[in-house]
Amino acid sequence: MNPIRPALLALALLLMSGCGALTAVSEASAPRDAYTLSPVVAASAPAAGRGHLVVELPSSAGALANDRILIKPVAFQAQYLPDAQWSEPAPALVQTLLVTSFQNLGGFRLVGRTGAGLMPDYTLMTELQEFHAQPAGPDAKPLDIHVSAMMTLIRESDRRIIGSHRFATTALVQTDQSADIVQGFDSALQTLLREAVVWTGAQAR
Description:
This protein has helices spanning 4-29, 90-105, 178-203, and strands spanning 33-35, 52-55, 59-60, 68-71, 79-86, 110-113, 122-135, 143-155, 160-173.
């Protein structure tokens, strides 16, 4: 047997392995488009409010605690969009949108986040439970966007829980394009934010 042939085969395999590694590194370092979402905007002037509200940073599972856009091809599998990401980690993004939505719709004199130096009358704690896209049926598309959160409102004067409620919304996306998926997230989250603001205001009365 010609000893050169095994050597050439080994070299070819090594080069192929190297190309695969370089491709993986290239894909990992490729820039991703960053997306944000929109808060709820009041149709008229914000309602006058009283009391101070602090919105804590939502807690979340590890798959959500980053700036990647989560896709679940099947129930127990977590993947991320390769060409898109959130402008900040998902829990921080939701916190920002909650604060801005409360400010836009009124109901409280002041609204801020933890660490802003605000002495709160109420604190809103949130567990971000779902913030992902998944196939709506057996095919890869359309996609269902799932957004859900458990919210708990605490009265600071006696540290009493005055309300706790789970919010869950969905939106249907017909394509697997990143911009369309983000629009679906925006639609679902808009519904959740509005419901959360109304509920929180009612609990604090």
